């Protein structure tokens, strides 16, 4: 009993004192923002057909369906062509800013608004990749996903350095952004635009009020305690959301795996052959034929797929096995991207997988990316022979 | 889940001053109680959410049958999900959606076109394409699935969703016919008829399985195309 109490208090200390997995949440943030950004850019020529007021899933049809389920989309507010273009452009912008980690919390909310606005406008255009993105865009709002590898982290470093030099730091952008978005939120609420399902309005209002409280406490509180309490709450919420993200990834694999076990084609070892020969999923028929030329290979891949999907959640209890399976799954998704012609689905799944990547690997990746950047900057800076990894700059990606 | 370690040095004070970081231990009792309350609320919310999602993706069972409405309330519309990816069995048939149209010519005559294989067109667009568009890969395919799911065996729509599915599919085929310039100069698409052509994927060469290679057709009745739609262009 005593041991149990000790473990419990250690666990509580852990989830309250820091936001766990800073690199993992950052890479998930970057992964999903990049997936959505690339998708929007790729579909730029088709945007009207997919989500526009005059597309096949017309404004009128969307309105009727949303009338029954109350899903959130800003595109249902008006059928104006200009409004559609604005929303699409903003969705691109928010994806870029979330990727860079500029005002990360606010951008994560706006990113979610962009994702839901477009996806919920035409739900029959999406596939599994859109579904993952939809869920993760909501979960990301609750994480502190900009603590590393972000403009926010860089700004925090600079502010800290400035303060250490005794300078006063005032942030005007944050309150201005808050005020503008607050105006939009109040206007939308008063105009009855948020009268559908409660989930999204609740998230919007909660974050907006929380940011105000955060600012007031940070600037006005006389003791440190209220600030520490808010920090603790933010950590708790972050860790809860991180757990949900991991559980969601596990549920995806578990569902995909366990349902497959019941299928006769997954049992007889031929399942993988079939998607490769569907017209809608075979951009490279010759490659598909080559991959499925050997019955034994197809059977091994078929069984391997089920095995990995079913086993994955259980391997989380063993770091080494988990990492091997993770590598296998990321590789399989990379193959699916090309062979089945599902690049954005695969990218989204890899972004979700990334939450399980080990910290040491991610830090090495960050240091490597920083070195590449330094080298590029040096090359651009003319005759000076490039200095071998400047330890100062090698750290830009991983604030200490 | 302790499957990964945490970098303890990656913390940052988002507040204006670097706050002393000791977590709950640094707080007085009053604040500790508030933190404990927050922890409890978040813990419950996380458990409920994961539980709801689990019941939503799991097969129908004792608990989910009993609490069906509560689960649906929680999940729909924003947390809906379906992860039966190629499960329990992958699709083993190619389903092509084809359409033909009745065109009113400028001279008042009526002409019926041949069948356009719109899925084959999608297939050609996807071939050799590293980045297939949702318009090529999902639009028609999912519209047909939606129609099948919302129509009875006599091709009659069931409920509002059935009507929505018909309008949607009609608008897609009219758009595609327009791109093929099926109406010709001065012509107008008055009615369309859609059918699906289902063929089995031929079994692998290394298997002894035999399946019929004869296509099966499902033909929908002719639909009138509203006049404003016949000229419509989404772009």
From TrEMBL, chain A:
Residues 380-400 are annotated as: Disordered. Signal peptide: none annotated. It is found in: Endomembrane system. Keywords: Membrane, Transmembrane, Transmembrane helix. Its main location: membrane. Residues 17-361 form the HTTM-like domain. The chain crosses the membrane at residues 83-102, 173-192, 198-217, 229-256, 290-312, 324-342. GO terms for cellular component: endomembrane system. InterPro entries: HTTM-like, Sporulation_signal_mat. Residues 380-389 have a biased composition (Basic and acidic residues). It is a multi-pass membrane protein. This is HTTM domain-containing protein. It comes from Streptomyces cupreus.
Automatic annotation (TrEMBL), chain B:
Residues 1-21 are annotated as: Disordered. Keywords: Membrane, Transmembrane, Transmembrane helix. It comes from the Bacteria. The chain crosses the membrane at residues 33-57. Pfam families: DUF5819 (PF19136). This is Uncharacterized protein. It comes from Streptomyces cupreus.
């Amino acid at each position: 009993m005593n041991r149990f109490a000790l473990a419990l208090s250690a666990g509580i200390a852990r989830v309250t004192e820091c936001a766990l997995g800073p690199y993992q949440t950052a890479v998930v943030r970057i992964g999903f923002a990049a997936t959505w950004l690339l998708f929007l850019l790729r579909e730029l020529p088709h945007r009207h057909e997919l989500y526009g007021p005059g597309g096949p899933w017309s404004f009128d049809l969307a309105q009727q369906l949303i009338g029954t389920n109350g899903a959130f989309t800003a595109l249902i507010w008006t059928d104006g062509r200009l409004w559609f273009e604005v929303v699409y452009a903003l969705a691109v912008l928010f994806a870029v800013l979330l990727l860079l980690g500029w005002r990360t919390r606010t951008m994560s909310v706006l990113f979610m608004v962009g994702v839901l606005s477009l996806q919920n406008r035409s739900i029959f255009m999406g596939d599994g990749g859109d579904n993952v993105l939809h869920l993760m865009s909501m979960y990301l709002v609750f994480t502190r996903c900009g603590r590393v590898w972000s403009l926010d982290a860089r700004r925090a470093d600079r502010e800290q350095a400035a303060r250490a030099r005794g300078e006063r730091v005032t942030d005007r952008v944050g309150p201005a952004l808050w005020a503008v978005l607050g105006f939009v939120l109040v206007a939308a609420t008063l105009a009855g635009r948020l009268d559908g399902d409660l989930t999204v309005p609740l998230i919007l209002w909660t974050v907006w009020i929380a940011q105000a409280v955060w600012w007031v406490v940070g600037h006005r509180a006389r003791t440190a305690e209220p600030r520490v309490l808010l920090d603790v709450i933010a950590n708790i919420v972050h860790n809860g959301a991180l757990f949900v993200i991991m559980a969601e990834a596990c549920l995806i694999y578990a569902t995909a795996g366990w349902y497959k076990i019941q299928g006769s084609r997954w049992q007889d070892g031929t399942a993988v052959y079939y998607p490769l020969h569907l017209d809608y999923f075979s951009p490279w028929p010759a490659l598909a034929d080559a991959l499925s030329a050997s019955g034994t290979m197809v059977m091994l891949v078929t069984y391997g797929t089920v095995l990995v999907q079913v086993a994955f959640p259980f391997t989380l209890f063993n770091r080494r096995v988990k990492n091997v399976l993770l590598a296998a799954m990321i590789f399989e998704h990379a193959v699916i991207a090309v062979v089945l012609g599902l690049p954005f689905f695969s990218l989204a799944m890899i972004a979700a997988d990334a939450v399980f990547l080990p910290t040491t690997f991610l830090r090495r990746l960050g240091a490597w990316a920083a070195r590449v950047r330094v080298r590029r900057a040096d090359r651009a800076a003319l005759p000076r022979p490039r200095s071998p990894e400047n330890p100062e700059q090698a750290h830009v990606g991983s604030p200490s | 889940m302790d499957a990964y370690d945490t970098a303890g040095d990656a913390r940052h004070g988002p507040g204006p001053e670097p706050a002393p970081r000791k977590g709950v231990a640094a707080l007085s009792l009053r604040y500790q109680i508030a933190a404990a309350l927050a922890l409890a609320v978040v813990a419950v919310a996380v458990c409920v959410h994961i539980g709801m999602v689990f019941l939503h993706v799991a097969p129908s069972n004792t608990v989910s049958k009993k609490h069906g409405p509560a689960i649906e309330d929680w999940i729909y519309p924003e947390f809906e999900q379906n992860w039966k990816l190629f499960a329990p069995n992958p699709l083993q048939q190619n389903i092509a959606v084809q359409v033909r149209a009745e065109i009113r010519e400028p001279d008042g005559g009526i002409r019926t076109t041949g069948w356009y294989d719109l899925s084959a067109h999608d297939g050609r667009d996807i071939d050799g394409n590293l980045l297939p568009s949702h318009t090529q890969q999902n639009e028609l395919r999912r519209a047909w699935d939606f129609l099948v799911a919302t129509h009875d065996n006599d091709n009659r729509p069931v409920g509002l969703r059935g009507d929505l599915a018909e309008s949607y599919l009609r608008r897609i085929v009219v758009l595609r016919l327009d791109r093929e310039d099926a109406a010709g100069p001065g012509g107008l698409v008055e009615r369309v008829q859609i059918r699906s052509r289902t063929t089995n994927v031929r079994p692998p060469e290394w298997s002894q399985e035999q399946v019929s290679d004869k296509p099966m057709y499902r033909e929908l009745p002719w639909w009138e195309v509203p006049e404003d739609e016949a000229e419509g262009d989404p772009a």
